[in-house]
Design goal:
eleven-stranded mixed sheet
Length: about 325
């Protein structure tokens, strides 16, 4: 099974992506990778491992200013467009990893790969740390701005299947809401609550925004608008707190000296956020596996994403997901 890698996606492309690929190959030499990007840069960065990777040469990247629905026509030779064409045509190509623009990755998944039978809307799953030390997934993270309650039910089934594929048994599913009492929320969340309650999933009820990071659920279900607003607000709050720490530590000589005695503790505080940053956002609900990395991803994140992609393919996560959707009688619109 081939994993396709877009080496021109993200703020630090292509060098960090190539280094992540090199690290992944060192850990798992059996990987079959097709890399899309500048051939000379990729082969130089891989060194003695260059012979293990097929390279499709291009120096054209898709940027945030490119229209998500038209970049295939406007930039047909870009790394992302070429990768999606390969994913569509090559039966052995099983997955795509990219840190490119979210909109372009979403439209590529729909236009070039297509939805799994029975899936109404593919969705993105993001990852955050919690107070318990475990991770929580948020789905949808921004793929679908307007949703029906049936979509949220499908998101829950897809999230549960993904979590089971990575070893989480009977994952707890929560619904992002303005209160935890049944009957709270807008019409969408009220309808979704009723569907989730009768779904057979391990539904733990509504979860308020300030409880998401308390680890009360393994996955939080939301429409893409609410999910994306929550994620970006949480992300900025974390950056703000981090900046406050840095300001306090480097305020003067005395605070710097004091910080030396707290290095281990500060590293422990930072650790769960570092781990969550390495997590990718799978686009679930399409016929092949697409993994979206954060635009600010560094080498370690690309490495972990490539290895996680291999594990999900070996676990037949997509096959299990398709079976789950079929069992529940879901139908496309």
């Amino acid at each position: 099974m081939k994993i396709l890698l877009d080496c021109l996606g993200g703020d630090y492309a292509p060098n960090e992506c190539v280094e992540g690929l090199r690290l992944a190959l060192k850990e798992d030499p059996t990987l079959t990778i097709v890399a899309f990007g500048p051939k000379e840069t990729i082969q130089s960065g891989l060194g003695e491992l260059a012979g293990k990777v097929e390279v499709v040469d291009t120096d054209i990247a898709v940027s945030n200013s490119d229209h998500p629905a038209t970049f295939f026509k406007e930039k047909p030779n870009s790394s992302l467009a070429l990768a999606y064409e390969r994913l569509r045509k090559d039966e052995d190509a099983a997955a795509l990893v990219s840190a490119g623009p979210t909109g372009a990755i979403l439209s590529g998944g729909l236009l070039r790969v297509g939805r799994l039978p029975g899936v109404s809307r593919p969705a993105l799953m993001a990852t955050l740390p919690t107070r318990t030390g475990q991770l929580v997934r948020v789905m949808d993270a921004g793929a679908n701005m307007d949703c029906k309650s049936e979509y949220l039910l499908q998101f829950a089934f897809m999230a549960a299947t993904y979590l089971e594929s990575i070893g989480i048994e009977n994952p707890r599913i929560g619904l992002l809401n303005v209160g935890n009492e049944e009957g709270k929320g807008n019409e969408l969340t009220k309808e979704a609550y009723a569907l989730l309650k009768d779904s057979g999933l391990n539904f733990v009820g509504s979860i308020e925004g300030d409880h998401v990071l308390k680890g009360e659920a393994d996955a939080i279900i939301a429409d893409g608008f609410a999910g994306n607003v929550f994620l970006k607000g949480t992300e900025e709050a974390c950056y703000y707190i981090s900046d406050l720490f840095k300001e306090a530590i480097f305020k003067n000589l005395f605070t710097k000296i004091g910080a030396l005695f707290q290095v281990k503790g500060l590293k422990n505080v930072k650790k769960p956020f570092d781990y969550a940053k390495k997590a990718c956002a799978p686009l679930l609900g399409i016929k092949k596996l697409v993994m979206k990395c954060h635009g600010k991803s560094k080498a370690e994140t690309f490495k972990e994403t490539i290895l996680e992609t291999r594990r999900l393919l070996q676990a037949d996560m997509l096959g299990k997901l398709q079976k789950k959707i079929a069992e529940k009688g879901a139908k496309p619109e």
